[in-house]
Amino acid sequence: MDDRVERDSLGAVHIPKTAYYGPQTARAAANFIDSGLKMPGGLLRALAMIKCQAAAANEALALLDGKRAAAIQSAAREVMQGAFDDQFVVDVFQTGSGTSTNMNMNEVLAARANERLTGKRGGKAPVHPNDHVNLGQSSNDVIPSAIHVAALIAVKACLVPGLRRLENSLKRQAERLAGIRKIGRTHLQDAVPIFLGQEFGGYARQTTLSTQRVESAAEDLKELALGGTAVGNGLNTHPHFAGRVISGIAGETGIDFREAHNHFEAQGARDAAVAFSGALKTVSVSLGKIANDIRWLSSGPRCGLGELLLEPLQPGSSIMPGKVNPIVPEAMLQIAAQVIGNDAAITIAGQGGSFELNTMLPLIAYNLLQSITILGDGADFMAEKCIDGLTANATNCAACVDKSLALATYLVPELGYDQAAEIAGKAHAAGKTIRQILEAEALLPPHKIARYFNTDLKADP
Length: 461
Prior knowledge:
The protein folds into 3 domains: 133 residues, Fumarase/aspartase (N-terminal domain) (Fumarase C, Chain B, domain 1); 207 residues, Fumarase C, Chain A, domain 2; 50 residues, Ribonucleotide Reductase Protein R1, domain 1 (Orthogonal Bundle). The strands form 5 sheets. Strands 1-2 form a two-stranded antiparallel ribbon. Strands 3-4 form a two-stranded antiparallel sheet. Strand 1 and strand 2 form a beta hairpin. It has 17 helices and 10 strands. Helix 2 runs antiparallel to helix 3, helix 2 crosses helix 6 and helix 10 packs parallel to helix 12. The termini are far apart. The longest helix is centred in the middle third of the chain and has 38 residues. The chain is mainly α.
């Protein structure tokens, strides 16, 4: 036979002989839809880390014998390295507490531990998924904790490095482009001249602030719900269990996790995750603004703004030969849209807490970790594939400055607002530049005209 039979509290369940998961996982896989969305690998690795540290803590507290503890820890380490990814078969859209995922982990670790100890895969002896792997825990405190651990690991490994990479790239371009004078734009209309380097300096500052916002919002994620068990009162767990587990996780990750100040808040609400998602949304808006500006500034190459030149990465059209599109900014804009959508879902899920438990934890886990990962990866590839290699079209920038009617603004201190506006109107009607009108009508002496319209001078002469 290709199946083995295991039992849970509801009766017998047929399970593939090759499976490490057990009856509760098999029931969950059959009960929920197959959306194609599984719990993120980062969440599973964080959950395995918790189980590993829990086994160590329970052994130290004389609640679990060394043989079982060692077998559980070895199995958990394997899961943390991705050895059994195919055994986590429960869909994201499952029981709202994440109990099915918690039991999926408990059963896989117990099955692997038993295989190590007896040579037989699966079963509940000598290692039991509930009595030993889940000792001192509940899905209700473990899954919220795993979300926080996974999120902060991803922030540290992916998001912050990606944002800093983009920030440094933008800063370098701000320096390189510092001498390129161009026209500013407000309301999509010509405004007074600025320098391209100033524009990029603004983008660099946006990414600096993005990192600061992420790091500030991440502080609340350092509180872990471990120790609260089912409802927050710590029933059936040792009073020193949570402290030992959290200390182990902090030592392993290099992140200063701490036990929740109030376990009822930590399990009944997901406010820290909602707030952190809000910070991610702000970052996505910021990166989307940068991407959209660069897309417009590089539009053309002949009939658009054409102030920036992007590296040609791939053909842009299946029908128009020679066309090249701003593919990286477009990808970044889609990432930003996805993160904003994820935040909306997380916000709604955050309201899914009734009394002592939030029951939309899997959705929060999936969307939060996806947002962190795609923003970090997106910032990194934006720097590498777009910002690092772009150059200025200095000729186009200078030409736009020269013909802009907004240069009349420089005349206001000399001639007043009304006369400056009249000059701008004449220039527009005649198809001439502001400088040409000034020279033709001798409205200012030559040295003052040169002062205002010498493109080698700063934007505010």
